[in-house]
Each structure stands twice: as structure tokens, then as C-alpha cells.
Amino acid sequence: MRGNSAFLDAASKWTSATAGGDVLSPALYPSGTGIWQRCGYEVDLRLEIMEASLTSRAEMGPVGVATNPNLVEMEDVDREAFDSFWHMGSTGLAEALSATRVSTVLEVRAEDRGLLGYAIVGAQLGMSFLQRIAVRPSHAGQGLGAALVDAAKAWALGRGCAVMVLNVRPVNERAIGLYQRAGFQATGKHLLVLRFRR
Which of 131, 141, 157 minimizes the C-alpha distance to 74? Predict the structure, then answer.
């Protein structure tokens, strides 16, 4: 949302009344939360920021670049991989793809199951962003997440990026472990998601 606090306040109240529930902000740096908090939003979630230097090209392995990403199929994987709060629909996936100047979908497929996992990665101004990664739970623990992260790093390095950044919930120890094994380190910085309560 763009505009002054009066606009944000009116839009938040309208959205809450229309949807019949709370309203969440996008993930924000702490310095960007002031206008939201003046409108009654409260901190609801904290996301840790991790980054990795991109120094050596990793192999793409079993991962391919989706030439024509199927958002419906990606949404199906997303629904299986995340609980309802974190689930991204087709609109959210499309937004993640358009968040940077250059982006792609990397995918792992099996002939009998179709899409097993995907990653959305973007690049802009020498930095890359791992926007989203999901693997079907039936194929978790088989190295597909690691392969997708490695492929994302390889893709970004091929576009001249020196660093990759991502955010993760501090309680998601499995994902943090995956990222640490892939060379990511906590930056000490975080993003906040705020909630406007009905």
C-alpha cells in the first residue's frame, strides 16, 4: 500500500471489514514499520535474513529451468509443502516472480508425479533473492531442496550476482539447516510482518 497513514488506516479498516478478519502487512524492514504501527498494526512475525556469497558455480543437478512455469502446478506443491498460513496461491507466486527485474522458476520433475519441487529466484543490481522454495513432503529428505538451492545459486551467479539473500522463520530449523549447509549465514537483520486486528 502506498500513501499516507490516513489512506493506510482507511484501507486497513475497509479490508478487515470486507474480509471479516485481520489484515497482514508485507514483510518489512523495521525502519519501514512506523506508518503501519501508527495505524494500529502490531508486530506478528519476525523473519530472519540470511545471505550467501556466490563464489563458485554449483551444478544444476536434477533441476531444470521452467520455460513456461505452471503456476497451478506450483500452487499444488506449495499447498502440500506449507501450512495454510504460509501457502501461496497463484497470485502470490506470480508476485514473487515479478518482484525483481529478472527471475525464473527452477523445478524438479518426475515423469510419474510431475512437479516435485520448485524455487523462484530473482536477480537485480548484482544481488539475487531466493523468493520461494517448496518440495512435496512425499519427496522431502531426498536432497531436492539442496539441489534447488544449489541450482538457484548457479542461476544467480550466471547473471552476475555476487550475493543471494533469503528470509526464513527462526523456528524453521530444518530450512535453516538446509540454508547453512548451502553456505548461507544469518545477517543479524530481520523483517517484520505486522497484523491489523479486527
Answer: 131
Q: What is the DSSP string of 121-152?
A: EEEETTEEEEEEEEE-GGGTTSSHHHHHHHHH
Residue 167, C-beta contacts closer than 8 angstroms, at least 6 positions apart: 27, 47, 48, 49, 50, 190, 191
Structural domains of the chain in order of their starting residue, each with its CATH number: 55-161 (3.40.630.30)
- pTM of the prediction? 0.88
Q: Which residues contact 79 (CB under 8 A, 6 or more apart)?
A: 87
Cα–Cα distance measured from residue 121 to residue 105, given in angstroms and rounded to the nearest whole number: 7
Q: Are 181 and 66 in contact (CB under 8 A)?
A: no
Give yes or no for a contact between 156 and 128, defined as CB atoms under 8 angstroms apart: yes
Residue 40 region by backbone torsions, left for phi larger than 0, else alpha for psi between -120 and 50, else beta? left
End-to-end C-alpha distance for the chain, whole angstroms: 18
State the CB neighbour count (10 A cutoff) for residue 156.
26
Write out pLDDT tens, residues 78-113. Answer: 999 998 888 888 899 999 999 999 999 999 998 877
In this structure, the dihedral spanned by the alpha carbons of residues 80, 59, 66 and 114, taken in order and rounded to 10 degrees, is: -40
